Amino acid sequence: MSRRHNAFRRRVLLAGLIVTQLGGPGWHEVDWTKLAGVGAAGGLCLAKVPMLVAVADGIVVTALLRLSFR
Fold first, then answer.
1. What is the domain partition of the chain in residue ranges?
2. Residue 44: CA count within 13 A, CB half-sphere
3. Rounded to whole angstroms, what are the CA distances from 47 to 6, 21, 40, 42, 53?
């Protein structure tokens, strides 16, 4: 397989893992704060921000939302 194919497959597998983790057990416990954090991180990745910064931003967004809506 080519390197391009392997890179695509890694992204697809990671996206599948993220989706299943966000859905919760049986897709009944969706946490909207996690969705917002992943959305923020994904948006920053699309804006070509370094991955570490995007992940850190997603964590901060999730934490702030959880603190705000306790």
1. 3-68
2. 17
3. 23, 24, 11, 9, 12
Q: Say what the alpha-carbon torsion angle 67, 35, 15, 41 is, to the nearest 10 degrees.
A: -60
**pLDDT tens column, 8-42:** 888 888 888 888 888 877 777 788 898 899 999 98
- Rounded percentage of the chain residues whose pLDDT exceeds 90: 40
Closest CA to 61 of 43, 42, 41, 46: 41
Whether residue 65 contacts residue 37, with contact meaning beta carbons closer than 8 Å, is answered with: yes
Neighbours of 33 (CB within 10 A): 16
Q: Are 13 and 22 in contact (CB under 8 A)?
A: no
